[in-house]
């Protein structure tokens, strides 16, 4: 009888011990799996784009102006007349079209432009003025356009010329800047500006 009682007292202890050990193992497994998941997610995180999206915001002649553009780097390449061909309309940046937004009706280089967002295209020319185009279709999601490949001249709202200047200093990353009087572009050794005034 004593042996039976001893066995009944010892058996639950052994059973509890085994169960506790299994719970500990399971907990460790969960922890290690979680770590693997985190590492996998970190390994699969997309790398930043080679031409990051940038924004320039400011007040030009009392009107808020925003420019959204892809900003490529020179990286020692020949830009004008090579990477960016002369005589062809260009997205004025990288990837999606450059978009410019006017918070109110304005005059751009003296011409009326209604408040809203527009694609901003540039046509570089060798030894001549460059063309600037504002177009109603600026969004891949909304209008189905990407860069200047789908440019529809019938949707142009304004075309005008600017005179580029070429300096000695190299601007490595393409940039638009909203100033008190308008918008300035700079990349590699080329710069140009156009005026934005309130109506």
Characterization of the model:
A hairpin with a 6-residue loop joins strand 6 and strand 7 (130-135). This protein has 199 residues and is of the alpha+beta class. The chain has helices at residues 2-43, 140-143; strands at residues 53-60, 63-70, 99-102, 106-108, 111-113, 116-123, 130-135, 156-162, 165-178, 182-198. It folds into 2 domains: 1-45; 53-198, no CATH class. Helices cover 23% and strands 39% of the residues. Strands 1-2-3-6-7-8 form a 6-stranded antiparallel sheet, with no helix packed on it. The chain starts with a helix and ends with a strand.
Number of strands: 10
Structural class: alpha+beta
Q: Approximately how much helix is present in the residues?
A: 10-25%
Number of helices: 2
Strand order of the largest sheet: 1-2-3-6-7-8
- The CA-CA distance between the termini, in Å, is 107 Å
Give the number of domains.
Answer: 2
| Oligomerization | single chain
Radius of gyration: 31 Å
Q: Which stretches are low in confidence, meaning pLDDT under 50 for 5 or more residues running?
A: 1-41
Strand content: 35-45%
**How much is the average pLDDT?**
83
Largest sheet: 6 strands, antiparallel
- Topology as H/E string? HEEEEEEEHEEE
Shape: globular
């Amino acid at each position: 009888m004593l042996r039976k009682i001893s066995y009944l007292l010892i058996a639950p202890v052994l059973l509890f011990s085994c169960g506790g050990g299994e719970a500990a193992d399971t907990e460790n497994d969960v922890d290690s799996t979680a770590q693997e998941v985190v590492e996998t997610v970190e390994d699969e995180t997309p790398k930043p784009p080679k031409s990051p999206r940038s924004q320039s915001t400011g007040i030009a002649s009392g009107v808020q102006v925003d420019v959204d553009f892809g900003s490529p780097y020179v990286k020692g390449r020949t830009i004008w007349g090579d990477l960016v061909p002369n005589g062809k309309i260009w997205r004025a940046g990288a990837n999606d079209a450059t978009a410019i937004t006017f918070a109110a009706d304005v005059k751009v280089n003296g011409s009326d432009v209604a408040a809203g967002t527009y694609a901003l295209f540039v046509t570089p020319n060798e030894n001549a003025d460059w063309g600037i185009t504002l177009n109603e279709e600026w969004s891949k999601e909304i209008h189905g356009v990407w860069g200047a490949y789908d440019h529809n001249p019938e949707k142009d709202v304004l075309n005008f010329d600017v005179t580029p200047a070429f300096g000695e200093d190299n601007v490595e990353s393409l940039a638009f800047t909203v100033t008190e009087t308008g918008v300035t572009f700079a990349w590699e050794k080329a710069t140009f500006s156009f005026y934005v005034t309130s109506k």
